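Hmm, how's this folded?
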Amino acid sequence: MKRILFLIAILAMAVTDLAAQSGTNSPYSQFGLGVLADQTSGFNRGMNGLGLGFREHNQVNYLNPASYSALDSLTFIFDAGVSGQITNFEENGQKKNANNADLEYVVAGFRAFRHLGMSFGIIPFTTIGYNYSISSFVGNSLTTTATNTYSGNGGVHQVFYGVGWEPLRGLSIGANISYLWGDYQRSLVNAYSDSYANTLSKYYTGNVRSYKLDVGVQYTAKLSKKNSLTLGATYSPGHKIGCDPECQVISTNTEEGVSDTTKFVLADALSIPDMYAVGLTFNHNNQWKVGVDYSLQKWASVQFPVFNVVNEVPQYALQDVLKDRHKITVGGEYCRDENGRSFLKRMRYRAGFSYATPYVTVNGVDGPKEVSASFGFGIPIVNSYNNRSILNISGQWVRSSAPGLIKENIFRINIGLTFNERWFAKWKVD
């Protein structure tokens, strides 16, 4: 009981910590709901997020809740991960770097009954974090400059509880139910070096309070004594997410110190879309595991509020500015002998590659496409107290680019500790 209370306390602290951090420095997080987070744990990240067809007995695979039915009996799995990243921005031959580090996720899982596994934890959904400015001369003037300052922070987080059940041999079903919460603050300030010109400021805010449902299925077919093939699929229904986005437009005469404020509010205007994913994994004797995942998020069916001035009349209205997002990932894992006595035999080697299309548009054109790759290790922790835990370390490179837009190169290090202990065993004393 003390251990459970301890983990609940850790989860509560994680909720507070994740809610306080942005997790990104990308200027593209000013569009839509922000940058879509990798909703994966440590072992998935070594394969660049692969996992829809993976059935792990000693890892929590949030990507497909049907996988929880494969969790070991008698054990409690606790997994937490952090990341550190360097982002290089490039535009018109100019380069700039930014750094940040984050607590990425905290998840736990255990076998509740025969063929029934459960999981819970906290994982980010979207992240927002940027601050930059652009200055230029006004018209033909060489003395008066206009400066646009863009800033924003926030994001949407999710606390989830999931169940996975294997009703028939080889067939598993599962579901995650999540509570979504978070807020965002975005601003655009147009200021001039000439004090006689008005400063125009726009402030965008929103507060999300809703739910998210993910259902999953996995079917494993035995090809031979040592080989199997697992098909996995998930679906998340789209719906409103309980947010009334606001926009405040403030015109300030700096010379006279007078401000004029106009406020716009859209009731229950934000939504998340239908999301589909399917994956196939080949398993050879629990040594070689290779797979491919594909996901589709129907963001084009979701409108997002935009401020515009039409015929000199300011408007804050929902518009079609989002796009369907497609992502494909290939990767795999190699472990010579996960039950071997040798440290090197129990080492896990992972790699993965992904390509994703954008879900946002920037000034009417498609946002940046994303190419990424990762390589990682699962390092066994072997001592007199515990020989079932794993230290997951991976490196990831992400490139986001589009013609005429800022190019981003992200170099990220992910570190996750999967603590696996026999909690539920009945010890016999002679």
Remarks:
- The two ends are 26 Å apart (CA to CA).
- Residues 2-421 form a domain with the Porin fold (CATH 2.40.160.60).
- The first helix runs from residue 2 to 20.
